[in-house]
Amino acid sequence: MSRINLSDEEWARILANLKKLTGIRIGQPDTCRQFISACLWILRSGAQWRILPPTQGKWNSIFKRFSRWCANGAWEKLLSHFSEVADLQDVSMDGSVIRAHACAAGAANSSAENEALGRSKGGFGCKVHALCDALGMPIKYILTGGQEAECKRAIPLLENVNASAVLADKAYDTNELREWLECRG
Questions:
Q1: Most exposed of 36, 47, 105, 108 (fewest Cβ within 10 Å)?
Q2: CB neighbours (10 Å) of residue 28?
């Protein structure tokens, strides 16, 4: 798999699933493929939208379409679809803090709760609680404020996941989680 471009096989799998989603306009398949490639470029590089190379398309158009798909839940539906074939021999989970600039919250019709932002010892930011399969591929994630403890999101992450083993660090070491896992074998 190229880390830059989608292979024809990957695109065929994504396109087949996109056609099943309601409220998503695909338009020309080649244009949609370029859009998804541009989104993946941003996600892989961590760059700002304005830095998107012109060969990927107009950054503002890509950003607006990305935002519409976020609001529509298209990305979550895609993740859910591809998570169905996850390798559940074991799963691993962890949390990661993402720092936010002080002006990140404050846009019109927005709040720190809606943006999953909060204040922790380290400053202003959010936390991503992620669950991955045996191959390290993401299955589920939850966004919370930066002050949220990992152990509080363990059970919601593991619900409806039938894995043989759970790998987690000491941030998840609670009696409640141990008992919950023992009840489910």
A1: 108
A2: 8
Cα angle, residue 14 at apex, residues 19 and 72 outer, rounded to 5° = 60
124: β partners: 119
Residue from 119, 139, 138 nearest 127 by CA:
119
Within 13 Å, how many C-alpha atoms sit on residue 84's CB side?
A: 7
pTM reported for the whole predicted model: 0.69
> How do 138-145 and 123-132 pair as beta strands?
antiparallel
Q: What is the pLDDT of residues 36-69, one digit of tens each?
A: 999 989 988 888 899 999 999 999 999 999 999 9
Structure tokens at 113: 């709760």
Q: What is the mean pLDDT of residues 173-179?
A: 90
Find how far residue 185's CA is from the centre of its chain: 28
Helix/strand/coil for 106: coil
The token pair at 135 is 């191959």
Residue count of the chain? 185
pLDDT digits (tens, 9 = 90+) for 75-90: 888 888 887 777 888 8
